[in-house]
Each structure stands twice: as structure tokens, then as C-alpha cells.
From TrEMBL:
Keyword Zinc assigned: yes
Protein name as catalogued: Peptidase M20
Cofactor comment text: Binds 2 divalent metal cations per subunit.
Domain of life, per lineage: Bacteria
Key words of the record: Hydrolase, Metal-binding, Zinc
One Pfam family cited in the UniProt record for this chain: M20_dimer
Organism (species): Natranaerobius trueperi
Length: 368
């Protein structure tokens, strides 16, 4: 099994590296050094240049038994805000942040666990498949790094992402796809006091559209939202332009495309009835994924979890992760529970035992 003290030391050190999204430069440097020490040749891809941020994704191959199928282990390098000056504190049997920042166990726990698992495997000289480590940049707020990942640099066709809430042993076997909507409603300006009848009021059109759209939870696996509305220039002008931004998610691809079609249809019909026009832009951020319990990726992980005497749990989520992007790019990938809690808040913490479990799980995944 992995070295608990060394794991904790590395975790504490990684937490103390500032790595807010888009500013992961120092973290990338440290991780490259760790990977080089393990005998790898880390490569930083072009995602950072494309995004205009400090770091791209780090890809590193660790040699293994070529008779075995290569496998990806991945975690992300960035944290949400407030994440400057983080300090991890051991508080009984949990690790939390010192105070005013997130802890950043999301996803330093994943980074530390992967590195410790590789180090232990190397020390013990155990047989393992070739491993492709992928540390992604700018994951928070849009999976920005993985969407620009140089997938042609990877040969593995399956992998695990260490980046989900839920106890260790949790496997995210279903995750939704997401569509993003940009809607521009164009009316016609007119003086609101002198000749309102000459105008076409985009606010009124937007209002009617919103009352007709199905917004919120649509069913057990489908949601939608209009999160931003902007428009108007002055109280005495009939509003000529309203912009709305929204999204829809579903674990069922068919339902997701039906919602998009319905949103478009409602926007156009209502706009037509007022003599307004609509520009409706929909962008697919990522696709859904669904894995069977019988799938080798899932059954292998189940075995790895059971060997730790933990309880396997198969969950569906409403959120997206790098696993969606990997799956969309033809790499069968599952996101795994990390045991951290209250992520994205300054109350974030991880039980020491769960940090240890994650590293042992990563070790089992590559050595079983
Ligand atoms: Zn995360």
C-alpha cells in the first residue's frame, strides 16, 4: 500500500501552491518536477497558449508492461477562489484550510494520490500497465483545459478522473451533457412617451418567452436554466435588444437535443408574433456519458474498491467533469469520489482517512 506520511506531506505542499484557475503556472512546474523524478518526461500542451493563461495541460507517460492496456489517471491543477495563500491544517482526523481560503483538496487530493500511487508502484517494482498521467489546467468554470487538450498525444482508450464529491468508492457512472444558449431578441426602438406603438419591445418578447420555456428541473435527469438577462438603455425608450444566456443538461442526449429544439421554436414563435427577431446560438459544451456496471472500467474499479474493504457506490450526477470531455473524445472515462466535502467554500475539508483511501485506490487501479 502507499506511504501515508509521504502522501500527507505532498498534499500539504501542493495545497500551499497558489493555483487559482488560469494561474496554475507554479503548480504545473511543481508537478512536472514530481513526474520527472518518477522517470517520466512531462509535456505541457498548447492549451495554455490558446487560453492565454499560465499553464497548459500536463501529459506524462509512465512506462509499464506493454502487454497490458494503457490507462489514464487524471486530476486538475487549478482551484476556485478564494485560493491565494492556502494553508492546510490538521484538525483531529480531518484536514481543513487555515481560514479565509478554500482548501483546494479539490483537486490537490487527486494530484497527490496519483503521484503517491506511482511512486509506491515504482518503489515496489510491481507490474502495471503503461500509464498516461494527465493533469488538466483551468478545469473549474468550464472544463477549459480539457476542452483544448491535445488528445492526439494520448494512446490510452480508458481512464479514471479523480475529481468527484462522494466517499471514496463512489463511481460516477452517469453524467449529463450540456448545451449553452446565447439568445438575442431584437425589437425596434421608439420613444416610450411619444410613439410607443412604433416600437417593438424586446423586454416584452423576452418576458413572454421566459414564461413559456420549461425552466428548472424538467425530469430526474434533465434540467434547464436562464441565468443571465441583459437589455435596455433608458426608461423612455422602447427596448430594442435583450440578451439572455442559459443552459440545459441531460443524461439523455435525445432529451437534450429536444429541449434545444423546443427553446428555439418558442423563441422564434413568440418573436414572430410581436414582429421581433431572434438570434439563437446553441453550443454543445460536452456530451453525456453512461457506463454499465458490467463495463470493464467499472468492474475493475469495483474490484479495486472492494480490496480496500470500502463500499462501491454507483452514482449519477448533474454536473460535468473532465470525464465528459474524455468520453466525448473516444476515451472511456469515469469520475471517482474523493471523500472531500464542502468544496468551493472556505469550509472545504477532507478526512485524512479518505485522502489515504484515494491514494490506495489509485494504486489498486494500476496494479490489480
Ligand atoms: Zn474539481
Amino acid at each position: 500500500m502507499t506511504n501515508k506520511e509521504r502522501l500527507k506531506k505532498l498534499f500539504f505542499e501542493l495545497v500551499e501552491i497558489d493555483s487559482e484557475s488560469s494561474k496554475e503556472g507554479k503548480m504545473a512546474e511543481r508537478l512536472k518536477k514530481e513526474l520527472s523524478d518518477l522517470g517520466g518526461e512531462p509535456y505541457e500542451d498548447s492549451a495554455g497558449e490558446k487560453m492565454g493563461t499560465e499553464a497548459g495541460n500536463i501529459i506524462c507517460k509512465i512506462d509499464g508492461d506493454n502487454d497490458k492496456e494503457p490507462i489514464i489517471l487524471s486530476a486538475h491543477m487549478d482551484t476556485v477562489k478564494p485560493g491565494i495563500g492556502k494553508k492546510a491544517v490538521l484538525d483531529g482526523d480531518v484536514i481543513r484550510s487555515e481560514g479565509d481560503t478554500v482548501l483546494g483538496a479539490d483537486d490537490a487530493a487527486g494530484l497527490a494520490a496519483i503521484l503517491e500511487a506511482l511512486r509506491t508502484a515504482k518503489e515496489q517494482g510491481v507490474s502495471h500497465p503503461p500509464i498516461e498521467v494527465v493533469f488538466t489546467a483551468y478545469e473549474e468554470g468550464g472544463l477549459n483545459g480539457s476542452r483544448r487538450l491535445e488528445f492526439d498525444k494520448l494512446t490510452a482508450k480508458k481512464g479514471y478522473i479523480l475529481d468527484s464529491s462522494g466517499k471514496v468508492g463512489t463511481m460516477i457512472v452517469e453524467a449529463p451533457g450540456q448545451e449553452k444558449y446565447d439568445i438575442k431578441i431584437k425589437g425596434k426602438p421608439a420613444h416610450a412617451g411619444l410613439s410607443p406603438e412604433d416600437g417593438v419591445d424586446a423586454v416584452k418578447v423576452a418576458g413572454e418567452i421566459i414564461t413559456k420555456l420549461k425552466i428548472g428541473r424538467i425530469d430526474e435527469e434533465t434540467t434547464s436554466n436562464i441565468g443571465i438577462i441583459n437589455g435596455g438603455e433608458a426608461t423612455n425608450v422602447v427596448c430594442p435588444l435583450v440578451e439572455m444566456k442559459g443552459e440545459a443538461r441531460s443524461r439523455d442526449e435525445q432529451k437534450l437535443s429536444e429541449i434545444t429544439q423546443e427553446f428555439k421554436k418558442i423563441c422564434n414563435e413568440v418573436a414572430d408574433s410581436y414582429g421581433a427577431t431572434v438570434e439563437f446560438e446553441d453550443n454543445r459544451l460536452y456530451s453525456s456519458y453512461k457506463l454499465d456496471k458490467e463495463d470493464d472500467l467499472v468492474s475493475h474499479c469495483t474490484e479495486a474498491v472492494k480490496k480496500l474493504e470500502l463500499e462501491p457506490a454507483y452514482k449519477a450526477t448533474g454536473g460535468g467533469s473532465d470525464a465528459n470531455i474524455f468520453n466525448s473524445n473516444g476515451i472511456k472515462t469515469m469520475n471517482l469520489g474523493m471523500g472531500y466535502q464542502k468544496v468551493h467554500t472556505t469550509d472545504e475539508f477532507i478526512p485524512v482517512k479518505e485522502l489515504e483511501n484515494v491514494a490506495d485506490l489509485a494504486y489498486n487501479l494500476i496494479t490489480l
